[in-house]
Amino acid sequence: MTREIPYKIYLEEDEIPRRWYNVRADMKNKPAPLLNPATHEPMKAEELEAVFCSELVKQELDDRNPYFDIPEQIVDFYKMYRPSPLVRAYCLEKELDTPAHIYYKFEGNNTSGSHKLNSAIAQAYYAKQQGLKGVTTETGAGQWGTALSMACAYFGLDCQVYMVKVSYEQKPFRREVMRTYGAKVTPSPSMETNVGRKINAEFPGTTGSLGCAISEAVEAAASQEGYRYVLGSVLSQVLIHQTVIGLETKRALDKYDIVPDIIIGCAGGGSNLGGLISPFAGEIVRGENNYRIIAVEPASCPSLTRGKYVYDFCDTGKVCPLAKMYTLGSGYIPAPNHAGGLRYHGMSSIVSQLYDDGILEATSVKQTDVFAAAQRFAKVEGILPAPESSHAIKVAIDEALKCKETGEAKNIVFGLTGTGYFDMVAYQKFNDGVMDDYCPTDEEIARSLAGCPVIS
Ligand SMILES: *Cc1c(COP(=O)(O)O)cnc(C)c1O
User: Fold this and answer.
1) Is ligand 1 within 6 A of the CB of residue 272?
2) Which distant-in-sequence residues (6+ apart) come within 8 Å of 207 by Cβ?
3) 339 lines ligand 1 (CB under 6 A)
4) For a FRET experiment, which of 25, 32, 246, 455 has its CA 20 to 30 Å from that of 255?
5) Is residue 271 in contact with ligand 1, taking CB distance under 6 Å?
6) 251, 283, 235: which is closest to 84 by C-alpha?
7) Bond preceding residue 189 cis, omega within 30 of 0
8) pLDDT one-digit tens code per residue, 316-360
9) What are the angstrom distances between the C-alpha of 356 and each of 175, 304, 361?
10) pTM value?
11) Is residue 218 a contact partner of residue 115, using CB atoms and an 8 Å limit?
């Protein structure tokens, strides 16, 4: 008996997950540990606690426990915007004239406009529990800074955001949302930190990078009493918080006995992708099931498809622990015309290990194709997607069109991580036809990779 599948599969409030899933517990090959950048020894909890909140350090280092309870206050906050809908893209299917069934998990239904609030609220909660005064962070495009500002406002914490200068100038409205929520927003590189002054002196007129803003935020946390640094992607703790996406997705699919054939996510630092796929990857590594999982990254920042799996610095200033990950080198900065987000040089160590083990595949896409897919989606599905999310849309459409060739009714599930209302400068470039597709040369990537540390 098949039931009619609604446009939106909603879950009940009491179906919000009460535990986050830690896929590392089920992985045979565990992700490599973070290393101390000076001694190259695995980072100890005490060392990490100087920079990060204690409870988050526990989550970061724990690769044995499969589940972490979600504290009641975080669940209560989740209730304001979760469960998020799993949408059957009937209109897109019709437009593509495909026999495929397309589903997307939409994380843009909150004021921050993206999935980042799922981890921001958790990190703010643990900072508050620890009795801290506030937190520092970096933000690139601004989604993370916005989400963290909201979370900090909710728990009454001070929030200091180092925003990559080019975004600070190009996205004044993002900045004002953060300030409205009470955050202090500083363009990076600034003259307020040692590392910022150093980078400004070395590269006068630089418009900044994510790696540089991270270094500034870490220094700011370390130099103020009662402050810690928090990060919106890449770290295992963040990926774990984002498993609410995958757990809800699985639950919604199970309600209608839908088994996905292909699961697609965009990959910047890997947190939404890792969160979406964790429950499914868990089934794969436990030998219970098989799915095709695809990570999608920009052709101009292709860490999985063209990077190397080595230990690297997580930030430009080289103050953070070393992580083993697929990386383009910490000095890698995507071309200035790159407008689609996902510009981090490295990748979550969990996603990296799953990729290295062949649990997931990766592909890269050109930004003009991404925006064309975004427009096609927006016209029929009624959501203006974030450029980041549109990387996943592009590949979902490609896979659905392949089904049209073969006549297969595959179930395609992708993560729609957010809305694109603050990305109109990028859309404008696309609409004006002045967006181009820059791909780094092999030499450029090799030069940047040469800066990775040598670990014996
Ligand atoms: C930050 C962001 C991403 C990429 O981050 P991940 O850690 O790779 O998930 C994707 N989509 C949106 C809307 C974002 O804000």
Assistant:
1) yes
2) 164, 165, 166, 169, 336
3) no
4) 25
5) yes
6) 251
7) yes
8) 888 889 999 999 999 898 888 888 889 899 999 999 999 999 999
9) 38, 9, 9
10) 0.97
11) no
